[in-house]
């Protein structure tokens, strides 16, 4: 699975990196997720956390791309 | 809650379509706790949209998708006014009432002061402040949680993060109280609101005077930082700095207090949840999120229509006011399983308790941390407690942020 965070939708709520700290982190300045606009691989052991993180985003900014 | 026809209501405009029910709802009077969420549920299940004849009249959106859509489209839904019964407010909250693209300049200026990093920096001090408050209360065996804890802790932590003495909470607590008495729509409290705003403003005027003319900004001192900041190459200017500082106080202090009251009422009434949080403290953040969803203190959020738009069957005209019922959205069964239950380890909790879109609550990271710290430190010292009254608890009306007016708690003091 891959994930992308749509940069135009992310508003820095911070739930995704709180829920999935094994894969996501905040930028150290304003609190947005650091990988905005990128597509990254989701390791198998992170899939559950990432599914929760994506579904917890109040902006619907996280898109999961199933393999 | 539905009031009878009075001079506070308007006639129904002809363009309100037949599919859009009309209500006459003034949400500002205090009611028994839970009444506002119950009303929101009732409205949401009756219709996704309403026209409310309260004040000059405004549209109401009740469901999750529509409320989120309102938040995410500032080009249609301007923040020029955020109180639908007052389209031309006497105050201007910055950056709350600034629209994109101007808004981003202010957010960039402010975000890093309330970022996760900044919150982490003051977390040890937040723990200390919370521990001191709980320890002082513990021996008493009872307290009014709202006055003795929920109003104190967020204020002290907020003053700490912006770099002024936390003891000045003694000044801010009554000001914030007076302001919100008037802000919620109680016309008799308007003078108290104006006086409170004056007190807050003068406090910051004095803070700015004490810092003016210094060659470099003081470290971790927000007012000093603003004095040295520029927007578009120009100094921010005193008027704007005062607007910013004032809104941060009002937005930051009353809200966290309100949310803490509901969370601790829940814990007082649900010993199993208390025990689980003591056994599994890693669930505290999720319990805090769930309290933000289920016990949303924002009955609704207002916006002003910036361009004629057909929105889910409502023919909105430029200048109309709209009201997104956040408390309806956060319990929308179209979005949540068991929407009216407190699910301590809920997943997929995408609640709109901190709003959405560009105006996502600037202080959300701080508010979450204050609540997490409060639960952790309180349960450590007072693991068992209960609501100490048989009388119904009352909440301030939904015109401003809802909040418990008082929450008497009691617990056994070890001999």
Radius of gyration of chain B: 21 Å
Number of helices of chain A: 2
Instruction: State the strand order across the main sheet of chain B.
Output: 1-3-4-12-9-5
Low-confidence stretches of chain A: none
- Quick one: overall form of chain A? globular
Quick one: overall form of chain B?
globular
How many β-strand stretches of chain A? 3
What's the helix-strand series of chain A?
Answer: EHEHE
Query: In percent terms, what proportion of residues of chain B is strand?
Result: 5-15%
Assign a percent range to the helix content of chain A: 10-25%
Low-confidence stretches of chain B: 1-6
Structural class of chain B: alpha+beta
Derived from helix and strand composition plus strand pairing, the structural class of chain A reads alpha+beta
Q: Describe the main β-sheet of chain B briefly.
A: 6 strands, mixed
- Our Rg estimate of chain A from Cα atoms comes to 10 Å
Q: Most extensive chain contact? A: A-B, 19 and 25 residues
What percent strand of chain A?
Answer: 15-25%
How helical, in percent, are the residues of chain B?
A: 40-55%
* E-strand count of chain B: 15
What does this protein structure show overall?
- The complex is a heterodimer of chains A (67) and B (415).
- By secondary structure, chain A is α+β, with helices and mostly antiparallel strands.
- In chain A, 22% of the residues lie in helices and 16% in strands.
- Chain A contains two helices and three strands, in the order βαβαβ.
- Chain A has a three-stranded antiparallel β-sheet, covered by helices on one side.
- The longest helix of chain A is centred in the C-terminal third of the chain and has 10 residues, at 47-56.
- Chain A is globular, with a radius of gyration of 10 Å.
- The relative contact order of chain A is 0.37.
- The model of chain A has no long low-confidence stretch (mean pLDDT 96).
- Chain B has 14 helices and 15 strands.
- Chain B has helices spanning 35-46, 64-72, 102-111, 116-138, 145-150, 152-162, 169-183, 190-211, 222-227, 238-269, 271-279, 284-294, 326-329, 364-381, and strands at 22-23, 31-32, 49-52, 58-61, 77-78, 142-144, 230-231, 234-235, 301-305, 309-311, 314-316, 321-324, 386-387, 394-395, 408-410.
- A six-stranded mixed β-sheet of chain B has the order 1-3-4-12-9-5, covered by helices on one side. A three-stranded antiparallel β-sheet of chain B has the order 6-15-13.
- In chain B, β10 and β11 form a beta hairpin.
- Mean pLDDT of chain B is 93; it is low at 1-6.
């Amino acid at each position: 699975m891959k994930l992308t965070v749509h940069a135009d939708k992310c508003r820095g709520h911070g739930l995704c990196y709180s829920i999935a700290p094994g894969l996501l982190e905040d930028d150290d300045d304003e609190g947005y997720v650091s990988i905005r606009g990128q597509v990254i691989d989701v390791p198998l052991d992170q899939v559950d956390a990432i599914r929760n993180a994506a579904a917890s985003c109040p902006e619907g900014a996280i898109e999961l791309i199933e393999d | 809650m539905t009031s009878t026809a009075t001079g506070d209501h308007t006639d129904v405009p002809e363009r309100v379509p037949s599919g859009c029910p009309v209500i006459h709802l003034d949400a500002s009077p205090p009611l028994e706790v839970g009444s506002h969420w119950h009303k929101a549920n009732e409205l949401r299940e009756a219709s996704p949209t309403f026209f409310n004849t309260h004040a000059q009249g405004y549209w109401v959106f009740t469901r999750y998708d529509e409320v989120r859509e309102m938040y995410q489209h500032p080009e249609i839904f301007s923040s020029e006014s955020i109180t639908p019964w007052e389209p031309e407010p006497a105050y201007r909250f910055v950056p709350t009432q600034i629209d994109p693209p101007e808004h981003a300049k202010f957010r960039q200026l402010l975000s890093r002061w309330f970022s996760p990093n900044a919150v982490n920096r003051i977390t040890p001090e937040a723990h200390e402040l919370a521990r001191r408050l709980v320890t002082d209360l513990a021996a008493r065996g009872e307290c009014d949680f709202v006055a003795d804890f929920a109003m104190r802790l967020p204020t002290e932590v907020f003053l700490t993060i912006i770099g002024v003495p936390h003891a000045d909470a003694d000044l801010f607590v009554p000001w914030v109280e007076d302001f919100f008495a008037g802000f919620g729509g109680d016309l008799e409290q308007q003078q108290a609101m104006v006086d409170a705003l004056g007190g807050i403003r003068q406090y910051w005027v004095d803070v700015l005077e004490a810092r003016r003319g210094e060659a470099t900004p003081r470290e971790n001192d927000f007012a000093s930082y603003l004095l040295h900041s520029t927007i578009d190459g120009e100094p921010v200017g005193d008027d704007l700095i005062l607007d910013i500082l004032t809104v941060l106080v009002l937005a930051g202090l009353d809200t966290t207090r309100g949310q803490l009251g509901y969370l601790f009422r829940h814990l007082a009434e649900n010993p199993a949840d208390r025990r689980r949080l003591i056994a599994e403290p890693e669930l505290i953040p999720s319990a805090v999120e769930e309290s933000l969803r289920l016990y949303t203190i924002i009955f609704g959020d207002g916006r002003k229509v910036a361009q004629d738009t057909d929105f889910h069957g409502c023919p909105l005209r430029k200048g109309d006011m709209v009201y997104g019922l956040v408390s309806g959205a956060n319990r929308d069964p179209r979005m949540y399983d068991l929407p009216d239950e407190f699910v301590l380890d809920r997943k997929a909790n995408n609640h709109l308790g901190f709003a959405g879109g560009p105006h996502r609550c600037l202080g959300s990271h701080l508010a979450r941390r204050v609540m997490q710290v409060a639960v952790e430190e309180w349960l450590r010292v007072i693991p068992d407690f209960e609501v100490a009254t048989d009388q119904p608890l009352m909440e301030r009306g939904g015109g401003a942020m809802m909040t418990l007016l008082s929450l008497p708690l009691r617990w056994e003091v070890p001999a």
